[in-house]
Every structure is written in C-alpha cells, then in structure tokens.
Design brief:
This protein has a single domain, classed as Glycoprotein, Type 4 Pilin (2-Layer Sandwich). It contains two helices and five strands. The strands form two sheets. The chain has a three-stranded antiparallel β-sheet. A two-stranded antiparallel ribbon has the order 1-2.
Length: about 170
C-alpha cells in the first residue's frame, strides 16, 4: 500500500484557528453577560440599602421626633447603628428603656477597615461599588425629610444615581 491511501490523523492549522476563533467569540459573549449581571446585582443591592436606610430614618423620626442629625453617612451610621435610649414615661423621674439599633450593618456595607459593624466609632456607609452613601438633612429633594443617595458606578455623573426620591 502506498501513502496515497492513508489519511493523516489530527487537525489542520485552519481547523484549529476556526475552533480558537469560535471559543474567543463565546468567551467574549459570556464576559458581557456576566458583567451585566454583576452590574445589575450591585444596583439592586444599593437600591435595597438605600430603601432600608430611608425606612430606618423614618423609624428614628418616630422615636425621637426628628430625623437623624448631621450630614454624611458617618452621622447616619452613628444614629441608626447604635443602641437607642427612649423615654417611655415622662415624670419625676422619667422612665427610659434602651433598645437595639434600627439597622444591624453587615460586612460590605461599611468602609473597608471599619473597626466594627456597629458604632461607636461611626464609619462611612458604602454602596456596592465601595463609594460612600450620601446623606443630607434636611433634604433638598424631599422637603421636610432627608435625602439618601448613591452616586452609582460612575460617581461624577448623575445618570446612574440611586436615590430615595423620584428623580426628574
């Protein structure tokens, strides 16, 4: 038998290049899908955190007849994350009760290196991108209330801000 009747085993260079190109296309599609899912998850996590902070501020107001004092997320962490001393009965002497924090913060919700999850000392509250949550009292967008917002993935633009008020 001659060499004309035998077939070589293996792939040609062109076949290998086609397979590599197909794999590269599939990988780029997968990376795009995964990054979109991660981005949406961060947005959803931050929306949830802002909603919880806003609700906790309303509860604080119910307890103390004012919204948490101060500006910035450190003031918010201090007011919402520590124990509360509430007056139950006015009288001589008044009767007080100590209650737990309005929010129990979790890892990832406070700046890196925060000494503890609950104050003191107060730490910055951060969004899913690691940027500080903003807090303003009194609010400019919610008169007679408070503004709480994240600047989103792109801190220097308003396009992806996540807020506790309805954006225009």
């Amino acid at each position: 038998m001659g060499t004309a009747g035998r077939r070589r085993a293996g792939f040609t260079l062109i076949e290998l290049m086609v397979v590599i190109v197909i794999i590269a296309i599939l990988v780029s599609i997968a990376i795009g899908v995964v990054s979109g899912v991660i981005s949406r998850a961060r947005t959803t996590r931050t929306e949830g955190l802002i909603m919880v902070l806003s609700t906790a501020c309303d509860s604080y107001r119910t307890d103390f007849d004012i919204y948490p004092p101060g500006q910035g997320s450190r003031a918010l962490h201090q007011a919402l994350g520590g124990p509360r001393r509430l007056r139950l009965v006015t009288g001589d002497p008044p009767i007080y009760v100590t209650k737990g924090p309005l929010i129990e913060f979790h890892t990832g919700e406070l700046e890196k290196g925060a000494p503890s999850l609950q104050p003191p000392p107060a730490s910055a509250i951060v969004d899913a991108w690691g940027n500080e949550i903003k807090y303003r009292n009194p609010g400019q967008n919610r008169p007679k209330q408070v503004d709480i917002w994240s600047e989103g993935a792109k801190p220097n633009t308003d396009a992806d801000d996540i807020t506790n008020w309805i954006s225009k």
